[in-house]
Amino acid sequence: MDVRWEEAGWERLTGRVGRRRLPVWDCTVGLVVGDESVLLIDPGSCVREGALVRSEAERLTGRSVTHIAFTHGHFDHVLGAPAFPEASFYGAVGLDRLLGTPGGREELSASARRHGLDATEAAGAAALTRAPQHPVSDERTLDLGGARVLLANLGPAHSQHDLTVLVPGERETVFCGDLVEESSEPQAGPDAVPGQWPAALDRLLALGGEDALYVPGHGAVVDAGFVRAQRATLAARFGVSEA
Q1: Each residue of 172-191: pLDDT tens digit?
Q2: Alpha-carbon separation of residue 127 from 1, 44, 94, 190 (angstroms)
């Protein structure tokens, strides 16, 4: 265990991969450190939180974050983005259109306010949040130098724009976004497509494999057995047949 990561409140998962559970909404952010580039998975829920993550990431890696992947477009996973103006942003196709419109940004701000974020902070972060310049329609590989990361569009399921991040290594690590949640029941809001959610988890398991570490959007790291159990729960909850 790298004590610097632990002292900063980060959990080191493999030699190149770590993650942090942020306070308030227990949202996970992930960090993948390549030889040439640094990828952040989800930048937090507001500019203040994003600035904290940026400071910690720079201290831990000695470099700036160069790439950011949005696992989906809910406020607690995207509104920290303005703290990273120089980074390249990636998201599932369609998220670029949502975050690039006044209506989409207002929807983000309203959701953040409903969940307790200060109104001024919510409005300011939403106004400054940039749409991802690199939409992912199926799969895309990022070469970070010594680490090739797979971005896979598995939605719509939990949201309209679900993206997972697979990091090979001594043990494959899969950042699931809110397709998987450990600290509470999976949340299905008005933008969810429940009938497709179990199939998205089938694909997630096929990509990650039996021995991978699965990192939920909220909660502790889980294994393939947990993902399969949550898939069964969702199928039963939403009446999805096993045909």
Answers
A1: 999 999 999 999 889 999 99
A2: 39, 15, 18, 22
